[in-house]
Amino acid sequence: MKIKAAVLNQMGIKPPYAASRPLSVEDVELDPPGPDEVLVKVAAAGLCHSDLSVINGDRPRPTPMVLGHEAAGIVEQPGAGVRDLKKGDHVVMVFVPSCGHCLFCAEGRPGLCEPGWAANVEGTLLSGARRLSRNAARLNHHMGVSAFAQFATVSRRSVVKIESDLPLDHAALFGCAVLTGVGAVLNTACVTPGSSVAVIGLGGVGLAALLGAVLAGATRIIGIDLSHDKLALAKKLGATDVFNADSADCTDAIRATTEGGVQFAFELAGSVRTMEMAYKITRRGGTTIAAGLPPPTHTFPLQQVNLVGEERTIKGSYIGTSVPLRDIPRYIALFKQGKLPIDRLMSGRLKLEDINLGFDRLAEGKTVRQLVVF
Question: Which of 130, 262, 342, 346 is the most buried (most CB within 10 A)?
Fold first, then answer.
């Protein structure tokens, strides 16, 4: 079938993107679902820094590629062998398909699925197939989803069925921002009531982590960013303190106000500078969690004697150490109860044709979560 999709033909094109237009909205061909695949009518797709890092070349991926990995939609056609989904079911898409058979899936860590990871790097679905094409030439999939399009053919293992009473623009956020941010707090760090927490980088994932800290019962929650607007929003969402990272004494001020640092510091900006800050504001015996994604060539210098002598812990968190089939329904239930107000992260809605302008706003730090709606 013919669909409209946003195609990235070349990485590294310079902003402003509204002028350089790295994403080209084109008519492309989408194949029907193969075995254990599903055709989904996309309702909403979020603009995330993981998409931006492919556009600017920080995370190399094969091009041409249809971008978009955080989305929700409605099942249009189940493929052969798919018996637990039917036309009309609502689903959230997940950007790491899990095979269910590798060592990590068997250990209950589907976010580390090796076949899923390999397929994402190669730009294919979990099966190894590419279902997108343009002028008879195959296009690559982004994270097995490619949601900046009217429809997406995805692996059955890339979607989680949800109840139909949740608006699909809200539902889209659960596929990345909520899984990654809330999951980092609840699953990776296992933050306990009464803890002290700092979150560096208050984009969609960072503010979701802040909501996760509120949910976990942390009593001291510090938000850190460069944007005054995001710091103000963090206060409204439950931060007890906020600091502008541009301040020369930001690190010292946080250590002073927390009497040596926080128990849990989350790096969600995706840079070495903020990782260094996160480590410095973690107290003795505390845990620093890295969930931002810097370019692969960047390295974090570490004073090993400090790590040993202060019994520090550094943990990576990918997709929030989540089990999507378990966690997405849980987080949606908490949202419906008013305990996880992720709707307050939504900055605005866009048409697909305005997607380059949306990425300008994201790159400039002017938004939290924008959504392309269909």
Answer: 262
